[in-house]
Structures
1.
Amino acid sequence: MKPDPHKQVAPSGLSRRGFLTLCAGAGAGAAMPWRSFQAAERQQQVPAHSWSRGEVIPSTCNMCVNRCGIKCHVVDGVLEKIDGDSRNPKTAGGTCAKGQAGIMALYDPDRITHPLIRAGKRGEGKWRRASWEEAFEYTADKIDKIIEKHGPEGLLFSSCTDLTEVFFIKFGKYLGTPNFARHATLCLASRNVGYFATMGGVPDADLVNAKYILMFGANRMESFELPHNRDLITGLQNGARLVVVDPRMTVTASKGEWLPIRPRTDMALTLALMHVLIKEDLYDREFVASVTTGFDELKAHVAPYTPEWAEQETGISARTIVKMAREMAAAAPAVVVYPGRRSSWYTNDAQFRRTLPMLMALLGAFDTRGASFFNAGKVKLGSFDWELEPVEVAPRFDGFDEENFPLAHHEDGGYINLRDNILNGTGKNPVKGWMLYKQNTLASVADSAKTLRMMETMDFICAIDIQPSQTAWMADIILPETLYLERLDPLWTPAGTTKYVGIRQPVVKPQGEAKTLLEILQGLGAALDKRREFETPFADVYNFTMEDYLDAQLKKLPVDRVTLMKDGLWIPPGQGLKLGEYRNGNKQFKTPSGKIEFVSERFRRNGYDPLPVYEPVVEEPGRQRLVTGRYAWFTHASNQNNIWLNSLHPENEVWINPDLAKEKKIEDGEYVKVRSPVGEIRIMAYVTPRIRKDTVFITHGFGTNSAGQNTLYGKGGADQALMQDRADTISNNQALHETFVEIVKL
Amino acid sequence: MTHHARKLKPERRDFLKGLGVASAAVAGATTLPGKALATVSGRKPRYGMLIDTRKCVGCHACSVSCRSENNVPMRKHRSWVEYVEKGSFPDVTLNFVPRLCNQCSEPPCVEACRDDATYIREDGIVAIDPDTCSGCKRCVRACPYNARFMNPDTGAADKCDFCIDRLAQGMEPACVASCFNKARIFGDLNDPDSNISRMIAGNTVSVLHPEEETRPNVFYIGLDKAYEDDAPAPESYLRITTQRKQNLRR
């Protein structure tokens, strides 16, 4: 049966129905408070849930970025249950807590289901309901005025990775702005830069057959990346050894051997491991000779990085380091040196990431069973023929370009220097209008007070979202998008060992007046057409349906849209991955030399250290380094307000080592103050031996400023309020673990 | 200190071998998990679950899947997960124990029920008829696994029933289906060829609270690892956390 949110008990103990009554009573004025909008239509009696009724529709999950295959049980137009799709090669039938809670995202009483225009001060929480027509006119008017005054460069487009994101970015491009900011520089940009420079790509990992798996911080058991989390469990069952290097004992670390490293010294460990492999002649001579360049320089470079030296830096004993190197060499080539995913840790992250494929190459642990490998790529989808006239585009306002960041992916932008440029006015064209799609910047970027100051400088902020996120709450207008369960999206095909094409399709009708992103952009485009002259009117550029788009994608494939909608996925014949092509020289790496480069030519050319040089860590006595990470039931800062997921973990805590707690006389479960140079929060202490004494951990997504998030509001503390704004110097990936905080007993 | 975690003495294979012998007399029914009550030979299945804690990562997919499938009211739990944290830095262990009704063959709840509202089905599942239940809570108190609760929507006692409705459709219970690490195996304990029977025969398994002599049909691999040394020295540390409540013991 459809879960009745009104029956769900709010964490405060007040029932949801009671809460609604209160809100409705208080909100009689023109500017009504949040809750009074939501409502009565959702109260309905539903029959008892039974699988004997209704239909099962296959689709693709969107509760995180993995896009697992799901089967949705719909009865009388109500989504009653989500199961995993066992035919999906990535997920093999499993789902996670988040995937299960998609139903609660759909029927979330806090969901925005019609356009809202701000009726009070920004962030005050006073909104008025608007028709879509008014919303489009209002937004188009603001955009028009900004372009009139500042040119299209006065607009910033921010979005998060999704299948529909392309429509949003095309819209910005067609308006003529060069200013985009995407998810990558909040996440994995430094890893990508390090790996691409060294070996021309980020490899996949054969975790099922590996004998030794070394992970730095990667937390596959809580931060899922399918099928790696499942494969890792299988690998462990097959007898693999798992060593997890992390100042905090994650669930992943608990499944293997935990090496609680002193934070920011990871590179000392990788350099010392390479030192031992070379010194003891344990490296794979044949692989090094045939597939790599720069070995002699590497040998000289790592000579001073002895295990004894590394012990001083990392806190991991020299004996352990030597033992690790020997054990890895013994297991080679069935060794996985795992690349990791979110690498927004430190300001030297791209250089550190480079040492991982270097270590991998010394072990010859590539392109063979049980090792890293480049997977078979994706199914080649047809591309949709956009009738887009080329628009002349000004340079980015923030200097995130070829000249300043030659190796970075410039279209991804980078919030840290972007925000500084807006605030300091150093950019050529100050950004005055901000279009947000599914992006919660206020919760995702370090130093949220600074983000708020940036928002104050904006003339107009428009958020396209499904919920009143922290950022949407500060916007001038919120345009409600459909949830993934209500819409047809562009097809997707993952890179993996089994190629397939997956479809995301509507399983229920949209709640309220929510529109798809494409419909929103079409409406907004038409309103803009009335105000400005474009070479081709938006009405023509966006003159297509999602079905047209899918048909174009499927043009050259032997499967049609209707079949795909029925089956949920299409697995092409002729799968199979051939290993050994790189080892035998048939395939070249996408690096300047065509080989794995110990000495990076790309880094050298662009003025970076061509071999990773260790920077000693500077710590602040009496303070702890703040690190962040995930629990298995939350994604980024997106679903902490989901009633089912929130009930698993109503508020976040600061993890404190018992020795530190003793010194500070802090008891487990007690509220403490955490103070950094840029912010201060109140948060519950979780005293646990699963973390080093010099480190504290706070998970992400709490401490919301949005009173529209009724389940979450008032709970926990915001890590990003404490974090200082640092970024990796090469990739411009933000560096979230560079802040020292003080724990203060209240 | 949680009642259910104390003094757990996992019994090893011997216990199960005994069980296997005892059940051999009724063995032979071949069923796919959930191919429900109509068995090929006419013999009745006895449903059970095996949870491999080595594969469990405490992700709560089961917890939420169960809530969704059975519309479990907020703050009530048919399915929950214990996080068991032990040791002192850096020698710490973290283990997970997914919990549910143990579907006992000798269920104290059935004995405690005066209304005959809770009963053992022919397939071994302990079920509740909410319409017959008077809401006296005796069964809630009687359960040594703390698996029962009063459902505020129905006013009746409630707990896991292995997703009877899904079984009727030939589907696995929701928690089993959602577990992407396949840490849960569901099947017919009366069928020696079923996956669950073979896994139980081939591994060291244990049950919760064997001293209660309830003969649970929910078995665990690796439970000893989670709960071993459950007699901590004064300075050592044990914390058992669930989404139901937190308990800390030093």
2.
Amino acid sequence: MAETKLITLKINDREVQVPHGTSIIEAARRIGTEVPSFCYFPGLAVQAACRMCLVEVEKMPKLQTACSLAVSEGMVVKTDTAQIHDARKAMLEFLLTNHPLDCPVCDKGGECELQDMVFRYGADTSRFVEEKIHRPEEKWSDLVYYDSPRCILCFRCVTVCDAGMDVKALGVGMRGANSIIIPNREDHLECEECGMCIDICPVGALTSGTYRYKTRPWEMTYVSTVCTHCSNGCKTTLSVRNHEIMRANNRDLSGINEDFLCIKGRFGFDFTTHPERIKQPMVRKGDKLYPVSWEEAAQTAATRLKQVYDAGGKDSIGFIGSNRTSNEENYLFQRLARATFGTNNLDHHRTADYTGLLTALGDNAADSVLTMKHLGESKAVLLVGNDPTNQNPLVAWQIRKAIRQIGAKLFILNAHEIKLKRKATQFVKVEAGQEAAALNWMAHEQGRLDSSLVEQLVQLQAALDAEPEVAIVFGAEITGAAIALLVAFGSKLHGKVRYMALGDYANSRGAADMGLLPDRLPSYAHVDDSAAREGFERLWGGVIPSKTGMTAPAMVDAAQNGNLKALYVMGANPLAHFGTLGFGRGKLELLIVHEMFLTETAKIADVVFPAASAYEKEGTVTNTSGEIQRLQKAAEVMGPRTDFDLLRILSHQLEKLGLGKAFHYKTPHAVFEEIRKAVPGYDVQPTGLLTGAAESTRVRIAKNGHAPYDVPVGLIRSAHDTLFTSGTLGRFCTTMESLPEAEAKP
Amino acid sequence: MELTPQLATRFEKLQTSYPVKRSALIPMLMYAQDEYGCVSDEMIAEIAKRLDLNNVQVEETMAYYSMLHRKPMGKFHVQVCTNVACMLKGGNEILERAKKRLEIGHKEVTQDGVFSLEEVECIGACTGAPAMQVNYDFHENLTPIKFDRIIKDLDGGKVPPPEPVTAGALHERAPGETPLISKRWGIKDSRKIDVFLEHDGYKALEKALKEMTPETIIDEVKKSGLRGRGGAGFPTGMKWSFVPKDSPKPKYLICNADESEPGTCKDRPLMEMDPHQLIEGMVIAGRSYGAHRGFIYVRGEYRYVLDIVQTAVEEAYANGYLGKDILGSGFDFDIVTHTGAGAYECGEESALMESLEGKRGYPRIKPPFPAVVGLYGCPTIINNVETLSSVPAIILEGGEAYAKRGTPKNGGTRLLCVAGHINKPGIYEIPLGMNMKKFIYEMAGGIPGGKKLKAVIPGGSSCPLMTADEIDIPMDYDSVAKAGSMLGSGGMVVMDETTCMVDMARRIMHFYAHESCGWCIPCREGTTWLKKMLDRFHAGYGRPEDIDIVGELAQNMLGRTFCPLGDAAALPTISIVKKWRSEFEDHLNGRCAYKNTEELLGAR
């Protein structure tokens, strides 16, 4: 980035240096001086409408708005004089004239910016004796309510919906003091239901349908954790009362998502209290599952696993893990498979080819990581495949942010006219399945393509070649050898290129990184790499097999024909994902499942352990761009236990039966300490994580002379979740599922 | 939705008239309403589709403009002005007559759907006050009897002829008047190009294109001392010179014909009687800084004026004064005429640009100023009609000669409208610097009925009011400013001793509360609060502390609002409270010197 000129100015007699172009309000924040404002919101267009941020600037006759005035050399600013106090007081007096002052029953009471502002700067008496303007409250959707008298018309909601979300569902109606915010469909909203408008509202004008009138802000505790839905890793702050999640938002803006959250992060927590939640362990007796004691369940699982193992050998058991469980749990799960049972029949529902990307990047992998922050600051983005608006909302937000704030250029190669197209500098349409051919042409100018497509690709290549930095983001359309083509193309470009593969779920990346793969150990060392194996064997005991195991679809197939006797499933629904529905358990002798709900797979299991959700546990997850973040326990649901606990319990039972070694980790943190030491690329500084930051992993795959990497077509595929679905878990997110928009989407 | 063929044609033309399609939005809404009586939901969807917008974008834009309706108005929409000039001349009585005669109230429609009634803000007929519009037709110098006659005619299916030209524009020239830009007024068919050409028309353009360079044009205008006639009085030549010469973007010129400052109606006759002078001025202005496209933004109420200007534009194209290679000079210039839809705020230059881009007329943050970042983000000059209409005269007689007509730093002549309690209401072209008192008492004939002068609004209702003792000053920008007021837009309103100043303050605040765009807090809430308070106070329910509060609230708005509208509301209010405080005190005691108690308590 070019050096920015520094400007020196004085704010309240303190000297401060800030980059050229900084506003006074931001310069003041640098030195911890708050200038109050309503309409100003970092990252969105300056509106200068609320007039709260008026400050004195030497040599300027009138008070100036600190949000809209840029600093200049030698400027002398005062933010705390009698004149300014008067102005703020007057502004608040004006604001309160039509505000209902129903704070005692207002959801926002206690965390309202207007309330706080009046408390700090307002007058102690009211001089307004006229009639207030009143209008009835409006329900715009199940999630959004609008109470216009409370609205102070800061227009943040309209701005965030338009410039931020590119949804444009909100507008301003009427004029003057009668102005109101209006939704896009007469009296209701049709939108992405992200709830950004609710979060950004400084007062109680926009309230959440799921939270309103339920509790007071001071009755709750606040826990920042990572959203358990898509793979982007947004921080969501859960407001918890009596161990129950009351709402989710993102008010401290400290996550990689800063001010952003989509519907899933904001409203997709109600599965935790879904009535169908499994709360007791269950064991099949005959054709039914019966609740049993923890002891019985654990013993049954261990004994029967031992039986299958003794009869059928190491590879008679398969392990299918989850893309929502924590890194620590995934790490233990693969240890269980590899060290305890000695099999590489281990996989998960793969939605992005991280192995492919890291293999293609080779030694450059660590330097080519495209984090969410990088993406938001990228001047050129190439998006291949995927529909980020629906599948990776933060990615879409970051791209829009880069376009909005630094004029980034977006180039899209896609088989579908996705919504981001309208923000694109160039959109290249290919046939579905033709992406790899297009990449092949771009990388090597090989293959036959339609001449008009070639023309577009030439143009695309020229445009990208002119950029000093390029961010390449791609979906599950690009896997295996196609990734090699993409990277080959990227390496031809003049600028620095960074990559991000887009997976589907909260810990899709972590599952791969932790080695829930039939051919890869944690951090992707191939199972035939004896040095890598020995390292883990020393840690865990046991012998790790060098033979590649079965993939998840292969295991489900093998269960049909009896080649696999037992299947151990943690937080996944493989019979729905990989089998044909109604496929059943085939010739499986034993099926053990950790689950929150009776999914298609859990229903036919022999042993079902009730599992805690990500919002009920500690640990870490890794988002699709390879950034680790900490999960913090927010809710408590009676009954279920974390997968970490379940695996520990089982390991002890198995040890008693003479199978493997028990897991002696006291906490998930202890597992993470081992991961930091044992898994290359995961040796991140824990301080950042502890303070709630995201830390980039630096995983890379050493070249070891293997044949060119590829994966069978279809092994890795996206579930194409929309904003309103989230795999199996989404079916239990009642709020999300029940919206009219959820039905309208494919 | 199925459109009538003429509307479909009009839409298609509008959609391609602007560099950005959305600019066609407000005209499309207006013409659709003309055709169907209102803008229906289907029409909103249709227009949204044509302009690639969401419905809500169309709805929110529409909701901003007071002339646009979602529900049908009557076949004859009667709009009675009660703003200051009309109020002083009986506008409220006309409104009361209308309510009785039509048996409907404000914004209501008669059962048969023939009439609807609306009390409107200043329609730009101040020198013909009291006035109203029926649809787009102006009827001025109304009396209750004249009003009844008009309604009777309409009821009988006969549309009475509207005012031929702005009442008060044509009168015998008074001694001391210096007709320069109004010199063609009164000549038969002066709006036609042939007549215009017979009377020095387009000579200045020829001179500017053939004998002058862009730099010398700007120099000449600088020398002329011409200052913006819209109200702010910024030196015109200097404004033009601010346009960056090396900008790769297209440059635009906008003529601000959104004349709506209460008391002001001088741009209306300038356009209706001499539209070519304006076009000529625009081409010269465009030439001076390299603009090739101009827009004339005419307030929605002035539809017939827009039509006159549009006809003139077509004539100018046909005769080679617009279009490509004007007069063989190689210079191209195009003009698009554009209708507003009822919003005072859109007279503010940045709000006007937003409006011209098809959005709600919210003002923009300055800097950047329009000369650098204006319409569609491109360098743009916005000048008032009178300013641009003065340019040909400057070019023809030279900047220095023009400047000499006025006083130093206040070059030339200006049009002054005088309305209210005055013997000869009208529009006068006088040299800048003429004595105000002399103007009122000599040129405009003094106060009717030998009454005493109480107050003067010197240049539109946004200016602080002046007492009779304060008016012995030269009328130029600087002298009036020194006297604590502003020369403003040239809309002078004179009040005699029978005027209730509390009522005046109340009526002025009604206007600003109605026109506040709602963007910033102090103006939005302040004007409405003051309106309610002054209503209550004037109705006899005031409290002693209210007098100070009125002044303080106005003071709290002053200088702190986003755009000058807040100041415009605050300044007259502060001046009235300060200068006529005793009248507020009288009201406290249940006395209004001008109304009996009964009437007071019944007042709004």
